[in-house]
Amino acid sequence: MDTPVELIVGLGNPGPDYHRTRHNAGADLVSELARQSGTSLSPEKKFYGDTARITLGGRNLHLLIPNTFMNRSGKAIAALAQFYKIAPQAILVAHDELDLAPGVARLKIGGGHGGHNGLRDTVSALGNCKDFARIRIGIGHPGSAAQVTGHVLKRAPQNEQQLIDESIDRAISALPDAVAGQWNKAMHELHTK
């Protein structure tokens, strides 16, 4: 895939109760990307979320953190994408990933939702299109399916959070190549660290 990225979305749940919980790792990435770019996100009602415009690697990008709950993320993504005529292939969604350990981040093009409610709703809202790219931020698995909800909605212990934050920084450093559509280069940079 050599499609340049036009929109980076960070998935999470809104409100102080969910701030810095594991499930908000994607939103944390987009907040940090905005901060490193010298801007902050502002509420935008028509896109059901907080948005910003940045330039990264010489490319203009939209940033979005939906302020819907996780399982309605697609509503915000579809609203912004339709307004700016952004194809699903030009969208990069950052989200937490149970199947990766804290400290690991991976880029991926397309695929299923893997049981992630934010991805499930995004696929549905984009007309059952799975062709968008993802940044998967490892949060680790609690060991049993029954513990997953409590695990993702809690804050990680400090040592794990530090690993998650480091993986977010590494993912951000690989983004200029990704947004330029140089996915192999971006993946090599991120996946070999």
Structural account:
The chain is of the alpha/beta class and 193 residues long. It has six helices and seven strands, in the order βαβββαββαβααα. A seven-stranded mixed β-sheet has the order 2-3-4-1-5-7-6, with helices on both faces. α2 packs parallel to α3 and α5 runs antiparallel to α6. It is globular and about 40 Å long. 45% of the residues are buried.
Across the major sheet, the strand order is 2-3-4-1-5-7-6
**Overall radius of gyration:** 15 Å
Please summarize the sheet with the most strands.
Answer: 7 strands, mixed
Structural category = alpha/beta
Query: Which regions have little confidence, pLDDT < 50, spanning 5+ residues?
Result: none
- Compute the number of structural domains: 1
Q: Based on DSSP secondary structure assignment, what is the total number of beta strands?
A: 7
Overall mean pLDDT stands at 94
End-to-end Cα distance, whole Å, is: 22 Å
Large-scale geometry: globular
Which H/E pattern describes the elements? EHEEEHEEHEHHH
- What's the CATH architecture name? 3-Layer(aba) Sandwich
- What's the CATH class label? Alpha Beta
* SS summary, helix count: 6
Helix content bin: 25-40%
The amount of beta strand, in percent, is 15-25%
CATH topology: Rossmann fold
Q: Tell me the CATH superfamily.
A: Peptidyl-tRNA hydrolase
